[in-house]
From TrEMBL:
Classification of source organism: Bacteria, Candidatus Dojkabacteria
Residues annotated as the enzyme's active site: H99
SUPFAM superfamilies: HIT-like (SSF54197)
Protein name: HIT family protein
Residue ranges annotated as motif Histidine triad motif: 97-101
UniProt-recorded Gene Ontology molecular function terms: catalytic activity
PROSITE patterns in UniProt: HIT_2 (PS51084)
Spans traversing the lipid bilayer: none
Domain HIT residues, every copy: 5-112
Alphabetical list of Gene3D superfamilies matching this protein: HIT-like
One biological process term in Gene Ontology: nucleotide metabolic process
Record-linked InterPro entries: HINT, Histidine_triad_HIT, HIT-like, HIT-like_sf
Length: 137
């Protein structure tokens, strides 16, 4: 895509701190990292989000993601790792070329928790939702 910033990175029209590349996927350091080693894993082909990407491209990207995550764990030995992927502006997506964040978490890294924003749903609400979303038959 002409104007997409990650497509420009893929085409090497703008620079990045690249850590991984294969035929289908690249990974580079986030320009505004949460922590040391915060990496973005990006399919080279342009897809906007999880709804648009093909199963095949997603699987290929996931395999690279796992490999890169293992590597970061081995090198930096963080206490934990957050994998995050935002879809849509309301969900926090700011670059509309699908990407996965690998965010190493160390002692002192601030991880924003959503736990205080959750609430229990009533039995009736849960039953209604499970009826709406049931894919079992
Ligand atoms: P999103 O908010 O869409 O989930 O994540 C986009 C990420 O891309 C942000 O964390 C942001 O810091 C990063 N980012 C935006 N522009 C650039 C860029 O030009 N280069 C790099 N390396 N990262 C970028
Ligand atoms: Zn793109």
């Amino acid at each position: 895509m002409e104007d997409c910033i990650f497509c420009k990175i893929v085409r090497e029209e703008i620079p990045c701190y690249k850590t991984y590349e294969d035929e289908n996927v690249i990974a580079f350091l986030d320009i505004l990292p949460l922590s040391k080693g915060h990496t973005l894993v990006v399919p080279k082909k342009h897809f906007k989000d999880i709804l648009e990407i093909s199963d095949e491209e997603l699987c290929t990207t996931m395999k690279a993601l796992k490999k890169i995550t293992d590597h970061i764990q081995r090198i930096y030995k963080p206490e934990g790792i957050v994998i995050r992927q935002n879809n849509g502006e309301k969900a926090g997506q700011s670059v509309f070329h699908i990407h996965f964040h690998i965010k190493p978490v160390y002692n002192g890294t601030t991880v924003v928790s959503e736990v205080n924003h959750r609430r229990e749903y009533s039995k009736e609400e849960m039953e209604s939702i499970v009826k709406d979303l049931n894919m079992l038959n």
